[in-house]
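Researcher: Good morning. I'm working through a list of sequences from a screen, and I'd like to move beyond sequence-only analysis. For each chain I'm collecting a predicted structure so we can compare shapes side by side. This is the next one on the list. No need for commentary yet; just the structure.
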Amino acid sequence: MNLQQLEYIIALDIHRNHVKAAEHCHVTQPTLSMMVKKLEDELDVKIFDKSQPLKPTPAGEMIVSRARQILQDIKNLKEFIRNEKDSIEGEFRLGVIPTLAPYLLPRFLNEFLEKNPGTSFTVMELQTQEIIRLLKTNRLDIAILVTPLDDKEIRELPVFYEPILLYTSEGLKYYQQDKVNLKSLTYDNLLMLEEGHCFRGQVENLCSAKGKKVHHQLNYQSGSFETLKAMVDNNYGYTLIPELSVNVKSKHVKHFTSPEPVREVSLAVHQGFVKEMLLSKLRDAILKSIPAHFKKNEKYIRVRWN
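Model: Good morning. Structure tokens for this chain:
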């Protein structure tokens, strides 16, 4: 059974003539007759009494009536989806990773909500794996996180490429350099976020081939960039940090030599999410709020987190 067959039996009910019904459906009369016969065979019931004039059987009248309702429901569904795609109003659950939330949301979210009073967000700071799980179970609507995720159930819309910088204490060699070569990174004196943060995975990918981990008196792992920066400010080593979280004019901040490492920041939704206009407006608002050089990645190395 398919929708065309339902359209054919409705046309037959309206015109009570195979030729006219076929013309109405823009098919040949043999095609229409064959498809109606296949539907009758599949349902094991005669839908039309072929005596003249042509008319539905008692069972056929019920089938035609249900067919009309089904096609109307599909039409209503298509109209609903069309309206949903063009609408941004509603209450939405927004998941954001902790290494982005305090630095990105204040840049755009308040202005976005002021411009769109019919839209509201419940914002949750969650680590990447939890965000993925909640998107897939429809307990989150939208996420802002670092990609790629490599998950077929999640749709990613890349928004920008945030440079990863080095934040160093005065006592290290990096402090005297204008720019730092990625190949010079080692685990020696490196401070990192705790397990579970995707940014930790990116740091490990950058440093994974730069020598063996060594034992130190201090092996410090933090849940926030602010703590790591405070430790570095007090000469406890160095860390890697995304640009939005730091004052780039600070003497502690060093860019890497070209091509710079970046993290790809994206909007992510379940494949079934239909609010396309909302995603488009969110993306535009974010792009408007960030530095211009975040919008290109030709001279960057995209660092994976997993």
